[in-house]
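ZP: hey, is the zinc ion complex queued? I don't see it on the tracker
AM: it wasn't, my bad. submitting now with these inputs:
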Amino acid sequence: MPNTYLDHPAEDALERFLLHRSDEEETDVVETHILACESCVTRLEALEIELAAMKLALQEFHKEQVEKAVAKQQVTWRNWFTLPRLSMAGGVAALALGIAIAPQFVHTGASPADVNLVAYRGLESPVLPIDRPLSVHLNANGIAENRVKVELVSNNGKQVWQDIASVNQNRINIEVPKITQPGTYLFRVSDAGTQSELREFSFEIK
Ligand SMILES: [Zn+2]
């Protein structure tokens, strides 16, 4: 029997992997393979860009869902009011809280960028857009389906945002307000109960 971990995954397998539609076995095979195969990481990155372009078409629809999700998280978003810039998400939250704000603050024009992050080790960090809300899907393969705490930490070690999320079908979906400072950041995922650190996803904001 051939060692499936050594074969380069087919294009459709990579696509399923990126879209989190792989079954457990395929996820395992692809994930193990790309840890050792730089050329497949390059393929994955190219495919991700392709998929991102496709997703643009769906973004208007998605934006609505994000705004609903944001409204539900109004309590969390309140923390953002202390930041110098009111984010688009903050504007939505302010509406949900019944605070009167000027209409031009509500629509800053930027729709959320949809991004998938995988905790690769020793590879270049993905680049995420500055000044756009982020709809982030963290690969949570191997993390138990529990409540988790997700912190956004800047490169000076400062926590700039946090939220409680749950692991669902091997991923953690979070809606993050726009980041207005370029630099290196990471999402730190820890168990919401025990606080023990589970995984880190680093990325660049440009
Ligand atoms: Zn390969």
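AM: back. Residues 82-86, 98-107 have pLDDT under 50 and may be disordered.
ZP: great, adding it to the tracker
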